[in-house]
What does this fold into?
Amino acid sequence: MASDAVDNFYFCLCPHFSLLCIKPQVMGRERKPHIALYGRRNNGKSTLINKLTGQDIAIVSDFAGTTTDPVKKSYEITGFGPVILIDTAGIDDIGELGNKRVAKTLETIKSVDLAILVIAGNKFGREEEELIGKFEKYDTPFIIIHNKEDEDPISDELFAKLKEVSGAEAVIRFDKDHGDIDNLISEIKKAIPESAYTTPSLLGDLVSYGDTVLLITPIDIEAPEGRMILPQVQTIRDVLDNDAVCIVLKEREVDAFLRKTGIKPALAVTDSQIFLKADASIPKDIPLTSFSILLAHFKGDFESYLKGTPQIDKLKDGDRVLLLESCTHHISCDDIGRTKIPRWLSNYTGKKLKFDVVAGLDKIKRDITDYSLVIQCGGCMITRKQLINRLKSARDTDVPITNYGMAIAYVHGIYHRAVAPFTKTDKEDLTSYL
It folds into this structure.
């Protein structure tokens, strides 16, 4: 047996199959909640960041507009854990460049787990009200700090108004020289939602102690050199976290492996691009799904995906389809989002469709209602909140949404089998989604 250490995993290569038996190095599941500070220029956001961290990490100046782009800093809250603090540009910035800074600031609201609205000098007006409206729109909990209390204490009237109309988790009076950091941290701990720092299991409800999980991972032109793609690594770790046995092999080894070993996996997970091959190789009494569908169930709006996927059958000539790829990578000649899915959809429907691809979290340039279908990737590189808010405009306007893996399974005729592990229902019952 040969072994090699790559990133955070030890790989043992089996001489009989292209098989990986993987044991991870010791590392905990880590998610860092993102906490952003918002407010007008010169309200003391950067000073507050420095007070929280006990470091001069944010530039502080009496000149309005010192902070331009959002600035991130890792910070450990004692008794809680690591967080990412984000210092943002002032929401009252002016001019063409200032408007762009404000737009970047507002964009962060979609992805942060907690917002801290910093006001000062008893100023609370349209800018703050619009911020609060966006916090509520994107389900972002927030607390309010009235800063610089030593210069201009908050009035009783404003304090009462904030408590009444803001819906904030807390309203805190803060003196930049004598502010109670411990109290602020206590309020942060109480306000951060549990979902921001806990990591549910990808397949904890699908496998039990000692089960064998078979992962089918093709090594093709899109596979990173010398590494595995993130969804595969995440799944390996999750299998081990659930005290199950993880077997990883390439698609061409599946038939021989099952025949020679007699092992019957409790679950098989495949790359969506080889669904047909996996469906033919894996016995029908073994549940089969894909890495993309695992992620769809883990962090996506799975019910909306189930309802949206069959809308593929209703696509017409000239319809426009949006593919959302929530990461950026080198584009190959056989790219899954730009080449394969459009080809498979066009062949399946027999229609002349138009396709747009938006990578990362870039702005969608067209109105979402221009699209007849939105297809979201698994979203391995973004948080659940980012993914949910990415699709919010489509859900709000009843534009059908689906997932890469679910769409691929549908056009290949194995949709029911691919989603069955998560619906816990028979194939006949799944016709309710049609």
About this structure: Residues 1-30, 58-68, 425-434 have pLDDT under 50 and may be disordered.
